[in-house]
Protein 1
Amino acid sequence: MKHVLKILKKGGVVAIPTDTVYGLIALADNREAVEKIYSIKRRPRDKPLPVFVESIESAIKLLRDVPDYAIKLMETFWPGPLTVVGYASPEAPQLAVSPEGKIGVRIPSGKEIQEILQKIKAPLISTSANISGSPPLRTGDEVKSVLGKGIDYVVEGHTGTLASTVVEVTAKQPKILRKGKIGIMEIEKRLSVEVKLAEGLNLSVLYVCTGNTCRSPMAEWISRKLTINCKNIIYSSRGTNTIPGYPPPDEVVMVLKEIGIDIENHQSRMLEHQDIEAADLIICMEHKHVLQIPEPYRVKAVLLSGGSEDIEDPIGRGLAFYQLIRDKILYYLKNIWVPYFLRKFEYC
């Protein structure tokens, strides 16, 4: 690390593996080094770069008007893949401050970058090691091949492809500016606070039951109808134990037609790992469905009832029972979930 520190202190740019993607770092108060990063990435100059710091105390010095929930965010997820965007204090490196007076700050995890931060004791400009707008690079060889000789030194290693989650903390509620490794539900459950989503972001909602022919497709299509004017909510449904391609029972088609919904073209689909990964929120009909979500992703899962009640499977139980289940699903969507979805957006 002595060689890396020497390069940074001389105004150089270093590529280094982080807990998210390969990153470029430089001293945040060195204009020449910061300009070099913009050139290497071909990044527009009006897009400010965030900074790495060594401690929460260091981060708070760079921010002003920090709300309590922002402190809790830092304490909960740092070191880690969360970038906090707040109003910059007079102590913030001006090269990292946006025209709106904001700065992004993060404490990354990882042995190498932590050691550098502890020894250099100054904010480091940080950004993904890639051409702006292109996929992130994952190895030192990829960085050398794509970014060429503009970088002064490459620390060898490898990383994943998910960037940090970026959360703005300038209002009464946190607002997610970029989705990343830390999900919406993990933030909300750990902080007991609802987050908003920035303009341009979507909310992906996945409904889960057993066969994906009755309850979950009813919830999916009723949700579509209730939020028809909000284009930023993406609904889907899956089954934990189904044969793909099955149509809904006649009773489901009938009870949804009674409320103006045509579901005849629905075909059942099996719950796959990529569905779980892609969802922001997984709404299950029964406790057993929650338990069938792999543990690392279970923080995304909730019951439709919002409490402890399971929504029973109506299969084979007569039209009146299908109507009862439809009405329960409609009740919970209208009274719990649709208002929750819409609170995520300022423009729905």
Protein 2
Amino acid sequence: MALLAVLAGSGCRSKSEVYVIEDQGKTTWRATLDKKMDTPSEQWAHACKTRDKGFRKKADRQMLYLFRRWPNSKEAPRAARARADMLFERKKWKDAFNAYQYLISNYSGQMSNYDSALERQFQVAVKVMNRRRLRWILGGYRAPEYAIEYFEEVIRNGPQWERAPEAQFMIGKCSQDAKDYELAISAYGVLGYRYPESDYAEEAAWQQIDCLVKLRKQFPANSDVLDRTLVATTVYLSSFPSSKRRSDIIQMRNELYEVKAGRVFNEAAFYAKVPKEPEAAIIYYEKMIEEYPKSQLVPDAEERIAELRAFLALPIKARTPNAPRSKPLPFTKDPLNAES
């Protein structure tokens, strides 16, 4: 009987009561003292009126209240976009970037003019990159590395956006300006891999070479950096054969070619100075001639090989003449230093 009573009671409810879904999100304490409307359309009209009067900070709170209170309403994406635009106009760069990110993350399918939101985010990233901190102390300083995460977010939001290659280039530029050349080289390499046909691909390849040149100045004895520079110049010439920098690249490659040849030549010269290692010196001179046949050091290497071969043709005693015997040290006291 109790079960029948429960079933009977549940059957008394109307269909409208059973299937009503109330769209209610969380509010914000910032809008506690603001006037609140009963519907999202009324709240939107009220917030727009406040904005048009010039009270953008107050309108910001009202827009925020709207899309938090009614997140699934048709006015919510418009309110989120309006709030982001107002923050941008007030030059609240970080807050504006986050507001556009909220809009893209939650209303990408409902918002209009998606590219304009990416454009605003890109502009904020450039502002962060060029911002001077602590201006009152000797004019301040720049910290472009802080903008890297902003440009990365822009690329994630629009990997095929028309300015995505430029954003990737800016990531490399930020690291390069911060003198983190390895990160800059990686960022420029990503640009060449993802966007090889973009207008920034050639400039990125050149900046890679420039970063490697600066690394060579920091670590002149590092052979790995030298080899990477040669590889980068080779890739540049093969990818951009008609570049205006072609002659500069070829000249740089010739200089690097001579540097590598000179290192092998110096190794051979070292062994040539060792009395019992003339054969090793000949091996290194021949290696230099084989690996770097166009080097300017080839004639010197051939001359050294001929001298060493002539030396090896001599009898063993003639190769190592007896050195003049040194005088034995006196065991008597030096009369100048003798004690009186």
